[in-house]
Design brief:
about 55% helix; binds tryptophanyl-5'AMP; two-stranded parallel sheet; three-stranded parallel beta sheet; mainly alpha
Length: about 325
């Protein structure tokens, strides 16, 4: 079976609808047909200032959310990145293969470092995409299911795999990004020009928000002055976003969903969005609460996932040390 790896940061108290539709939903769908590895990437989380207790809590809560989404530890290796030291080991080697200019061109770094206040941004934030490349390459992943915002990081990952293979001999699989077309970029409900993101909470649908909050955010979603429902992400990005959400959540083609609203205004479109998102979020929250109630069991699943991940990661690391000319701990 082809190998899949992806990751998500534990940097909020809840995943949001963009995470779910852009990534997590595809992870769940891939479990049976691929050899799947999914990580809570807490090493990535500390590239910006984080509170240690909050990070621990969010890592556990994020892990519970992965299970609540439908990831099954019997089918997938689900683990926390910091429990697998090989990620940091390979990241160092990959940093030594990355050009300074190459790393400087990463657009997410430019955006995030501006938010951190320019020069105050950490070197870890700068090398973040290289750690991400290490995450992927360690597991020899063929496919990496992510949202559109990760495309540039995947390109860097491919370049680094090819560079390592060229310099030291064939070692790494060169992975492909797996980006679901319709939901690759769920947009902000208040500003359809921006992607939905935890850093813009008013336009972001957090899955663990209360139903009333979700409902209110959808009701207030920015639309346009066209007054008719068409799927046209350029001219009607807000409306098209709601159509894409309904289509994805109800497993229906966008054309069919759009057809159902032909001639209608935006009120029914928003109500239909509420009708698909609110019950899903409500069930999700119940499952998360159940999982969080048994902390010992959650920790057991985490430790078991990490044990399996270390086994696979170590095969790559042993080969890398050998090829690069480093000495393994004896
Ligand atoms: P993160 O934690 O920001 O986001 C997790 C996943 O959610 C997707 N996503 C979206 N998809 C569609 N619309 C949106 N508005 C939206 N917002 C977020 C992201 O594309 C991502 O797939 N760098 C990664 C974490 C990472 C990783 C990896 C991913 C670390 N190592 C290795 C893949 C493989 C990130 O920041 O994800």
């Amino acid at each position: 079976m082809p190998r899949v790896l992806s990751g998500i940061q534990p940097t909020a108290d809840s995943f949001h609808l963009g995470n779910y539709l852009g990534a997590l939903r595809n992870w769940v769908a891939m479990q049976r047909d691929y050899d799947t590895f999914f990580a809570i990437v807490d090493l990535h989380a500390i590239t910006v200032p984080t509170d240690p207790v909050e990070l621990q809590d969010r890592t556990r809560l994020s892990f519970a959310q992965l299970l609540a989404c439908g990831l099954d530890p019997e089918l997938s290796c689900i683990f926390v990145q910091s429990q697998v030291p090989q990620h940091a080991e390979l990241a160092w080697v990959m940093q030594c293969l990355t050009g300074f200019g190459e790393a400087s061109r990463m657009t997410q770094f430019k955006d995030k470092s501006a938010r951190e206040g320019g020069d105050a941004a950490s070197v870890g934030l700068f090398t973040y995409p290289i750690l991400q490349a290490a995450d992927i390459l360690l597991y020899q992943a063929d496919q990496v299911p992510v949202g559109e915002d990760q495309r540039q990081h995947l390109e860097l990952t491919r370049d680094l795999a090819q560079r390592f293979n060229g310099r030291y001999g064939d070692t790494f699989v060169v992975p492909d990004a797996y980006i679901a077309k319709e939901t690759a970029r769920v947009v902000d409900l208040q500003n359809p020009a921006a992607k939905m993101s935890k850093s813009l909470p008013t336009g972001c649908l957090f899955l663990l928000d209360e139903s009333k909050v979700i409902e209110k955010k959808i009701k207030r979603a920015v639309t346009d002055s066209v007054g008719e429902v068409h799927f046209d992400p350029v001219e009607q990005p807000g409306v098209s976003n709601l159509l894409a959400v309904i289509a994805a959540m109800s497993d229906s083609p966008i054309a069919e969903v759009t057809e159902n609203f032909a001639g209608g205004g935006y009120g029914p479109l928003k109500q239909a969005t509420i009708d698909v998102v609110v019950p899903f979020a409500r069930d999700f929250a119940v499952r998360v609460a159940d999982l969080m109630a048994d902390r010992a069991e959650l920790d057991r699943i985490m430790d078991e996932g990490a044990r399996r991940a270390r086994e696979v990661a170590d095969v790559s690391i042993v080969e890398v040390y050998d090829r690069v000319g480093l000495r393994r701990p004896s």
